[in-house]
Design brief:
Blueprint lengths: L2 H12 L6 H7 L6 E3 L15 E4 L12 H11 L2 E7 L13 E7 L1 E6 L5 E6 L3 E4 L5 E6 L4 E7 L13 H10 L14 H7 L6
Antiparallel strand pairs: 1-2, 2-7, 3-9, 4-7, 4-9, 5-6, 5-8
Length: 204
Amino acid sequence: MPIKDQIKNLAKKLVEDHPDAATLRALVRARKPAAIRFRDDGIVPNNPRFPVLLYRGAVNLKSRRYPPEVIIDTLFDTNGWGRSWRDTVYDFVHYHSQVHEVMGVARGTARLECGGVKGRVLRVKAGDVLVLPAGTGHRMIESSRDFGVVGAYPHDGTYDECTDTRERPDAVKRIAKVRRPKKDPVLGRGGPLLTSWRTARPRS
């Protein structure tokens, strides 16, 4: 998301009540994510090493005290994924070549296309978390009216947005340089992302 959206969200977070570490631990469900690989389709590079990770029902959002967006946002920030935004997902194919992205579904349901037009459509709902490695094409196909997500990025990445095929040659080079994050956005240092992405092998 553009920097203005991140600033807007930061201002909102400054006046919100946030769950503490113990509360967050109680709301997180230790689920093994599905790992989904996407090949370079000639238009969207996707990621040559790391798979997309989909955590189903990763966060219990039924809290009387904290809104779903606050729970997810605080969870991501606690685990080193910041510069967050709260919105929906663009309905056109795009990807980020210099940073990984996590999206936690705060409300509603949606069908998201991942991997570009030759990729796969994933159905997501409130409580699900989707981790997109740098280069992964994505867009929203359809959603419920109340659909909303919280997005965030590792602190050591640089946000960019690629939509033009003319950017592709340079984007492929940048994607290869994006390192594995230090923490899983859902489960922290001991989370499955670290294991899954450590053992990932380049696609042939």
